[in-house]
Amino acid sequence: MPRAESLLLALSSLCMMSDIQHNLNKWDILNTSVPVVFPHGTLADGSDLEILRENNQFIAITPKSEHHWVHGQLFTSGIMEQSGLGIDTSFTSSSDILTQMWFQLQSTRNTRSNPAHLHQKLPNNTVMTVKQAFLLGTPNGGLALRRPDFGVIKKGAKADIVVLNSNNTAFSAYYDPIAAVVLHANVGDIGHVLADGRFVKRDFHLRGYDWRGIQTNFTRSTKKIQQVPLGYQNKYGTVRAQALSQFGLAEDTYENVATVNVEPSKL
C-alpha cells in the first residue's frame, strides 16, 4: 500500500479523536507546507487547538452529518478558529454550505448556552454571530487549503462567485446582508454561479451540463452504493489496520470511544 494512502487512512481514524497532539505532532507530520485537513474533529479539545494553530492546520466541520450520526459537537465551538465548513456526504444532509452555516450557528449557540439553561437561565450575550458563521463557510475553507484567494471577492482572488436573489420577504426583513444569507438563504435563491470567472449557472439554470444524464448517473450510483455487501466493513477494517501499523499505531487505539445507551425521545 502506498505510504500516502496509508497516511490518509491513518488520519481518517483520528478524525473524531482528541489524538492530534499525542499521535501526529510527535512525528512532525503537521509541521509541513502541505495542508492537512482533519474531518470532524468532534472530540478535539483545547490542546489540539494549540497544535493546529502552531502548525496552521485545520479541521473540516460538517454540522448536519455530525448531528445525524449523533457524534455531537460538544467541543467544536472551541476549535472553530482553525476550522472550515464541509458538507460530508449528500445522502445524509443537503450538499450546500448555506445550510451548514445556519446549522453550525444554531448548534454552537445551543451548546454554548447549555450551562445557563441547566440553571434555568438564559444567556445575556450572543455566543456566536452570523458573521462568524459566514466566515466559516467562506474564507476559512480556503485558509484550510492554504489558499487565501478562495472564499473572498478581491483583486487577484479566484473568481468563484455565487449570486443570490434577494427579492423575497425573508431577505427583505434584514438590513444586514450577511444575516440574511446565513439565516434565510437556500439553494433555491442561487440565481448565478461563476466558477473561475465563467458562468456555470445563470438565471437559475445550469449551463453546459446534461442534467438528465447527471440525474440518471446519480441514481445508478446511489443504488450501487446501497447494495455494497456488509463484508466491506470487515475488509475496510483490515486495510485500515494495515495502514495504522505502518505508522506504529494499534487498531484499538482509535476505537476506544466509550458508548452508552441513551433514553430515546417520546412524542
UniProtKB/TrEMBL annotation:
<dbReference type="InterPro" id="IPR051607">
    <property type="entry name" value="Metallo-dep_hydrolases"/>
</dbReference>
<dbReference type="GO" id="GO:0005829">
    <property type="term" value="C:cytosol"/>
</dbReference>
<protein>
    <recommendedName>
        <fullName>Amidohydrolase-related domain-containing protein</fullName>
    </recommendedName>
</protein>
<feature type="domain" description="Amidohydrolase-related">
    <location>
        <begin position="33"/>
        <end position="200"/>
    </location>
</feature>
<keyword id="KW-0378">Hydrolase</keyword>
<dbReference type="InterPro" id="IPR032466">
    <property type="entry name" value="Metal_Hydrolase"/>
</dbReference>
<keyword id="KW-0862">Zinc</keyword>
<dbReference type="GO" id="GO:0046872">
    <property type="term" value="F:metal ion binding"/>
</dbReference>
<keyword id="KW-0479">Metal-binding</keyword>
<dbReference type="GO" id="GO:0019239">
    <property type="term" value="F:deaminase activity"/>
</dbReference>
<dbReference type="InterPro" id="IPR011059">
    <property type="entry name" value="Metal-dep_hydrolase_composite"/>
</dbReference>
<dbReference type="Pfam" id="PF01979">
    <property type="entry name" value="Amidohydro_1"/>
</dbReference>
<dbReference type="InterPro" id="IPR006680">
    <property type="entry name" value="Amidohydro-rel"/>
</dbReference>
